[in-house]
Hints:
Chain A is of the alpha+beta class and 114 residues long. Chain A contains 5 helices and 3 strands, in the order H-H-E-H-H-E-E-H. Helix content of chain A is 56%, strand content 16%. The mean pLDDT of chain B is 90. Chain B: Keywords: Membrane, Transmembrane, Transmembrane helix. Chain B: The chain crosses the membrane at residues 77-99, 105-125, 137-160.
Amino acid sequence: MKAEAQALKGHLDVLLLAALEGGPRHGYAVKEALREGSGGRFDLPTGTVYPALHRLEGAGLIAGSWSVVDGRRRRTYTLTAAGERRLHAERGTWHEFAAAVTALLEPGPWPATS
Amino acid sequence: MAGHQLIDDHLADLARRLPPDAVDELADGLLETWQCHRSAGLPPAEAARAAIAEFGSPAQITAAFVRQSPGRRAARLLLMTGPLVGVCWGAGLGVSRAWTWPAPVPVAAGFGLALLIVVAALAVAATSRRSYRRTRLAALGGAGLVVLDAAALAAVLLLAPAPVWPMLPAIPASLARIGLTLHALPRVLTDR
């Protein structure tokens, strides 16, 4: 899974935002959403997901709040309006990029150069 | 903690390295993971080992927190902008022949020493890889930088014998850095 974790690095922020699009989640649930949503390919060390969430919170893209569950403190994160805007923008950029790469990787003739 | 001794030991190790809020959050996630493994039928010790492996080692987790810490990020930003502000001041003071201003030598020397301490504190915070405590030195460095910028601006206003046009780029540079630092400091100071 090392190669996937490395490839994930540049896209972690937007994937974390996407994991919160469906509603509030706590850190472990976010990590599980990434793992399950990727069919097990993106299985990050859970402990390293929390600091990334803190950074997104510091940037105002998500908001965290404390509650008490089963006698222990739990921090739950929600997408902010700024986070939703960022997710929307990043999603559009990704679709364009992926479409371009897919078009180039598909078997077929490349444009002739002079 | 209502988990397993292995998990308690892991959390105790993390508590020695990270802020209390971060440890509480990790504890919740770790116990949740342990319970998931227990629900899947693993015996307690095996479930604890699986949960810990899934979470990462204390060193790995701490390094991830240090990389993303507000202190380290603020220190890096201030160190990156430092040379630009320094060049503005250096050029301005040089052209204005600042050494002819009526500033007592001990005060000027104290300013230089304080600047060295501030840069050292920021450098330690910015280069920390495994120690979260070191990233907190950014608060000291940032606060010191605000005081030094304010002192430099006051010196220009009070000590310069005449309008010092060469200082014009340095003044907005320092004001901008004060604003930047005051914006970053609360997050560093409230980081728990």
